[in-house]
From TrEMBL:
GO terms for molecular function: carbohydrate:proton symporter activity. The chain crosses the membrane at residues 85-112, 138-157, 169-187, 193-216, 228-247, 259-280, 349-367, 387-406, 413-434, 509-530. Residues 88-536 form the Major facilitator superfamily (MFS) profile domain. This is Major facilitator superfamily (MFS) profile domain-containing protein. Keywords: Membrane, Transmembrane, Transmembrane helix, Transport. InterPro entries: MFS_dom, MFS_sugar_transport-like, MFS_Sugar_Transporters, MFS_trans_sf, Sugar/inositol_transpt, Sugar_transporter_CS. It is found in: Membrane.
Length: 585
């Protein structure tokens, strides 16, 4: 005999076999009460199906509406409605200040008299070695690249840790580890221990450098995306500016504290960042990928103001829909998926944009104090020029924020910057032909400062912003990791050969080394002209469509505008249909 089904039984049966009807049971076994219950249940099932269909239609409408609102919202409105998200993005990006601080610290200590005496070898006093001591080119290359090697492995590790533990826990753990590793650097008594400390410190720095832009790209709307992914670069400049000031102040000390004080100041950042970031919200994109929708909605509630025109539900639905669309396109979440199908093109663009920072001349023109010394400038002028250069770089980055990025596309800025930097480097190298003339060394030094300004107007900002935009959302963290590691690899090669170009005990090329980097900058410009797409004013869903349709890079702007118009017409048609149905009812 068949007993009537309860609501719980119906739900269980419906989940297991939704197409099996109770009417398929033997007629002799079904009572009138059972038929009555069955009719009620089928009406309930029909109602549930209609409700699900209606919710899906509403979700689709919400997603279209969210995309339209995201295109229409202004920067000022976004700053007002996403105040909390901006605060947390700024806080997370401050971790990168430490890597920026270190990127110029050791490179500029090569010309530091007390550092040369502690870790270098006696080579005799000359116009190029006023202290009488020099680090060998091998140790310059090893110490200069140790942090980069550590950062390479730290970035790879980050791609795994974030998927498992989330952004917040990974960043806080890395800050705690860094606090321990700084002890090795601070107490080092020989170059071997210093190299070990730099290698260890590089691991958390690699985590910070790949977490900060990914966190910003997932927390903010499209209109703010470029500002706060490129803010990571601004944090680099802040760190470099602080380091150049500290080095200039400590230059007057004639003891080991002249270079140990700059090492000790690295403890300042973890001391106040750890207690703040322990309360940071987790990325809603990460939570959606983990299937934690309720936690994702709570995170969105913390990021958006209550009066935001894009509701929390709309934001969540847009994330869910984009994640689902990428899953339907077979976008996986492992490193190997970054090299399959359309993802390979996205990975290439991300990697080349980061590598472009090095290829455009970073090793010779950015950490320039040793270069200044080798072209004949004294130490006090060298470090004063260094501070001025980083001050101008910071000013240029703000100019890029407020004047260039809101008005000009990413592609045009990067192309113009790469071409200009190539010309400046060719000019620096050509001036070497008149190095016997008074003032040529100063002119070359000033040209490197102009190069820094152009770099921060273009490659410095967009080398961070484009990789954070161009990867699919499911592979964003790993795409940024691969892009940043491409930078570390090229940077390691560049900073390994650069000391040999300049060192008087090696090739002793002086400013002629700029010919090499001018050529690589020109080659990068050629690649960018044919392969770099425009990502300005495009949502992640629209970028997915453009890459899936294999749109040529130089046609992204035109085709992207067509997609936006098509989505708006779809939304208006949907609204009109809904209004018509309501009036009919």
């Amino acid at each position: 005999n068949w007993a009537p089904l309860s609501d719980l039984d119906f739900r269980a049966e419906a989940d297991l076999a939704p197409h099996i009807s109770v009417y398929q049971r033997p007629a002799s076994k079904i009572s009138d009460q059972t038929l009555s219950n069955t009719a009620k249940m089928e009406r309930r099932e029909t109602g549930k199906k209609n409700e699900v269909t209606e919710n899906l239609m509403l979700a689709s409408d919400d997603t279209r509406g969210s995309s339209t609102l995201e295109h229409s919202i202004t920067v000022r409105q976004a700053v007002h409605h996403y105040r909390s998200a901006i605060f947390w993005c700024l806080a997370v990006s401050m971790t990168v200040v430490m890597e920026g601080y270190d990127t110029i610290l050791l490179g500029n200590l090569w010309a530091y008299p007390t550092f040369q005496q502690k870790y270098g070898e006696y080579v005799g006093v000359s116009s190029q070695t006023r202290s009488g001591y020099q680090l060998t080119p091998a140790w310059q290359a090893g110490l200069g690249n140790a942090a980069g090697v550590g950062a390479f492995f730290g970035a790879l590790l980050n791609g795994i840790l974030v998927n498992r533990f989330g952004q917040r826990n990974t960043i806080v753990g890395a800050l705690m580890a860094l606090s321990c590793f700084i002890f090795v650097v601070f107490f080092s008594q020989n170059p071997q221990v210093l190299l070990t400390g730099q290698l260890l410190c590089g691991i958390p720095w690699g985590i910070f450098a790949t977490s900060a832009p990914a966190y910003a790209s997932e927390m903010l709307p499209m209109v703010l995306r470029v500002y706060f992914t490129s803010w990571t670069n601004m944090c680099f400049i802040i760190g470099q500016f602080i380091a150049s000031g500290v080095l200039r102040v400590c230059l007057s000390r004639d003891d080991e504290w002249g270079f140990r004080i700059p090492f000790a100041l690295q403890w300042f950042w973890p001391a106040w960042l750890i207690p703040i970031l322990m309360f940071a919200p987790e990325s809603p994109w990460h939570l959606v990928r983990q299937g934690k929708l309720e936690e994702a909605e709570r995170s969105i509630n913390r990021l958006q103001a209550s009066d935001c025109p894009i509701s929390h539900k709309q934001t969540l639905m847009a994330i869910v829909e984009t994640n689902k669309a990428e899953k339907d396109l077979a976008a996986g979440t492992s490193y190997k998926h970054c090299f399959k199908g359309v993802e390979l093109r996205r990975t290439e663009i991300a990697c080349m944009c980061f590598m472009g920072q090095v290829l455009c001349g970073l090793p010779i023109a950015y950490n320039a104090t040793y270069f200044y010394e080798q072209v004949g400038l004294p130490a006090n002028i060298t470090y004063s020029l260094n501070i001025g250069g980083y001050g101008l770089a910071l000013f240029s980055a703000f100019c890029s924020w407020f004047f260039l990025l809101p008005r000009v596309g990413r592609r045009k800025i990067y192309l113009g910057g790469a071409f200009t930097m190539s010309l400046l480097l060719f000019l620096i190298a050509i001036l070497t032909s008149w190095k016997q003339h008074h003032g040529v060394a100063e002119a070359q030094a000033y040209l490197t400062i102009v190069w820094k300004a152009v770099f921060q107007l273009s490659a410095g900002q967009l080398g961070w912003a484009i990789p954070a935009e161009v990867g699919s959302t499911r592979l964003r963290q790993k795409t940024i990791v691969l892009a940043r590691n491409s930078y570390y690899l090229v940077h390691t090669v560049g900073t390994s050969v650069q000391p040999y170009f300049l060192n008087p005990r090696a090739l002793d090329l002086g400013a002629r080394a700029a010919f090499v980097w001018a050529t690589t900058a020109l080659l990068f410009f050629t690649w960018a002209f044919f392969r770099l797409p425009e990502t300005k004013n495009l949502t992640y869903e629209e970028l997915n469509r453009l890459f899936a349709q294999r749109v040529p890079s130089r046609e992204f702007t035109k085709t992207g505008a067509g997609i936006v118009k098509h989505r708006e017409s779809e939304r208006l048609a949907s609204v009109a249909t809904g209004t018509s149905q309501n009036s009919t009812v």
